[in-house]
Amino acid sequence: MELNELLSRGVAEVIVEAELRARLAAGKPLRLKQGFDPTKPDMHIGHAVGLRKLRTFQELGHQVLLIVGDWTAQIGDPSGRDETRPRLTAEIVRQNAEAYMEQFFRVVDRARTEVRWQSEWFGSFTLENALDLAGRFTMAQMLQHDTFRKRYEDGGRLTVLELMYPMLQAYDSIAIHADVEFGGTDQKFNILCGRELMAQHGLTPQQVFLVPLIPGTDGRKMGKTFNNTIDILMPPTEMYGKVMSMSDAVLPLYFEVLSDLPSAELSDLRRNLAEGAVNPRDLKMRLAREVVAQFHNPAAAQPAEEAFVQQFVRRELPEDMPVYMLTAPTSIVDVLLGAGLATSKSEARRLIDGGGVRADGEKVESYELMLQPGSDIVVQVGRRKFAQIK
Question: In terms of CB atoms within 10 Å, which of 47, 124, 139, 334 comes out highest?
């Protein structure tokens, strides 16, 4: 992969990009830190956004260090939380971590990964060490953390233990001498703490590599807290269906961060979607196949698609329905009129605005949707009006 694309595609921010470029140009293998708190046993495809980047760096000869947060998981990352997390036992954390490993190595090359547990260094941490660490950050610095500041200003419960979380994550970078730390944009504060602490210890500060947080099935940030995830261990048919349930608006981002679609094709995809020159449902089905193939195997993708079509797309179709033949790309408004599903273009637009029009089971949200000749799509208006578009 070309360097500019490596540092831009599926990347939210690099701090400091010029420094990272210089390190990469030097040709020395870099130590890439990625930490996970095994607070729950399941990983989701949002985690895979950063893991795919790690795999690409591995292919370029760099070393990944997976930090298993067996200590910080017992606190729980406070980022984005409006209340203190319940404490987890060490036994539950370890069980969750073992499950995490299986999923992590579905994406990242196990042979080029060094697994480190925080207990290697925190297990022998003394009170003197803890006080030294706490003394290196001020309360003013901690209150720059959006979550801490908001909870403090709202009068919510904010424990000293939670304030220690970014410091402990930062110390991980000292323990392993990280060159780059990877994380989602919600980890920016914590990773920058690592950069600050390394500088205080006379080490070359790590670079910060942030990837975007992708939307979940309800449109909010994908996360276990919201119960809106597509989990890596989800059965193929369920995974396929979850992708199909996503909003059309997420398609460009999902293809960017979760597929190997060439950049030129990605640009065409964005343009075609914006111009209504492609049916979003077709792109979503392609994406669903790619996601299933990636986290299971290519052989599982086709049966998952067939099961989805059988269950959700064709289940209510009448055996005998009118057929409307297209000779050229035609807008959905003209299709509704030509197929007799609407009496006028204005009625067709009202039907679309009211959410009553579906194309192969997917709600039509734009007048600009273009249907192609030979597409064999079933258009439905309400519960009883259907036409097969060919």
Answer: 47
